[in-house]
Design goal:
It is a single chain. With 258 residues, the chain is of the alpha/beta class. The protein contains 9 helices and 11 strands. The chain is globular. About 3% of the residues have low confidence.
Length: 258
């Protein structure tokens, strides 16, 4: 039996196990299972791997997308550029980190923006998911300004973000856990009264489908998209990473440098 899973904390919100169970049933994959492994600390990962030698690969979610890197043997070129990992392939004792969030974000921006190419964006959050957002925005020539609660990790805080920046930045990406089930009443501390029909809002949260951040934007005429497109796309990209392309990626993969 091939084993796969997701590590993170907390995982009550995660739909990954259900998604893969449905995928396996739909596609007649009888020799695989996918489980959620909630780890109190990333330091618990070696014990999990020792207990589950049949674990072929796993996803990584909050808060371990950056913390896992020192435990890996290699990084894909894209994961190295982003500085965050959400997908790990296991070959014997060797762990290789990938970032399939980037593929999910490309699909999300295609869906939300179409042919639009805004010049600038606000990225709410400074964690591993935000790093992938900034990477994909840079690919499209969109300048990103990071809003963080920690002034050392962003370009500004919610308190120092100027009202004209909110009003004049057409793309806002919510890359924090705020609003995720079960704390669905939460939302970033923006001036939502400054958001209007020219704004495009992407929330990486997919549970619930309509977060308070998106609901407040929709009330003011903004075009919105939740994290479902990103979730499905990164999940399929992870499955492909675990089960195909091994020879190609192994040939071209640089050794990790951290």
């Amino acid at each position: 039996m091939r084993r796969y899973g997701v590590i993170g904390r907390p995982l009550a919100h995660s739909a990954s196990a259900r998604y893969f169970a449905e995928k396996f049933a739909r596609e007649g994959i009888a020799d695989a299972r996918y489980d959620a492994f909630e780890l109190g600390s990333i330091d618990e990962l070696p014990k999990l791997l020792e207990e589950l030698p049949e674990l072929c690969g796993f996803n990584v979610t909050i808060p371990y997308k950056r913390a896992i890197i020192p435990l890996l043997d290699r990084l894909s070129p894209e994961a190295a550029r982003i500085g965050a990992v959400n997908c790990v392939r296991r070959d014997g004792s060797r762990l290789t980190g990938y970032n399939t969030d980037a593929a999910g974000l490309r699909a999300s921006f295609d869906s939300l923006l179409g042919e639009e190419r805004p010049e600038r964006a606000l990225v709410l959050g400074s964690g591993g998911a935000a790093r992938a957002v900034i990477h994909v925005l840079a690919e499209r020539g969109i300048a990103a300004r990071i809003v963080s609660r920690d002034p050392a990790r962003g370009d500004c805080t919610y308190g120092t973000l100027r009202p004209e920046e909110v009003a004049g930045t057409p793309l806002i990406v919510q890359a924090t856990p705020l609003g995720m089930w079960p704390r669905t009443e939460e939302a970033p501390g923006l001036r939502y009264d400054l958001i209007g029909p020219r704004h495009r809002l992407l929330d990486l949260v997919y549970n619930p489908p309509l977060t308070r951040f998106l609901a407040l934007g929709r009330e003011r005429g903004a075009r919105i998209l939740n994290g479902a497109v990103m979730f499905r796309t990164q999940a399929e990209a992870s499955w492909t990473t675990w089960n195909s392309g091994r020879a190609q990626t192994d040939e071209k993969m640089p050794e990790r440098t951290v």
